[in-house]
Amino acid sequence: MGTLRDLQYALQEKIEELRQRDALIDELELELDQKDELIQRLQNELDKYRSIIKPATQQVHKQTELQEQQRTKRQAISAEPTAFDIQDLSHVTLPFYAKSPQSH
Fold it and tell me: CA distances (Å), 45 to each of 32, 36, 39, 78, in order?
């Protein structure tokens, strides 16, 4: 077994080790707190951007749908009458054209 002086020296070394570990723990906890603050700030900023972008995206989507509907309406225009009375066409006669022998 060691002498009293050896034991006191070993105790001092262990106390110093504990102080260093405590200092490291304090430093790491401070770093962790700073990173938590950064995460919170970035989360708030992200929430802010999402609140702005979501309505803007919906508005752009609605405008795109409206433009597509308008395009569809333009494409649906027909030269044919939509409603006609068959009696209005009864007086129309179509001319007869004889086919040439080459077209047979």
Answer: 20, 14, 10, 52
pLDDT tens for residues 53-93?
A: 888 788 877 877 777 766 554 555 666 666 666 677 677 77
Residue 104: CA atoms inside 13 Å, Cβ hemisphere, count?
3
Residue 42 has pLDDT above 80, yes or no: yes
How far is 12 from 17, CA to CA, in rounded Å? 9
What sign results for the dihedral spanned by CA atoms 72, 75, 80, 81?
positive
> Of 18, 17, 16, 11, which is closest to residue 3 (Cα–Cα)?
11
Q: What span, in angstroms and rounded, lies between the C-alpha atoms of 53 and 35?
A: 26
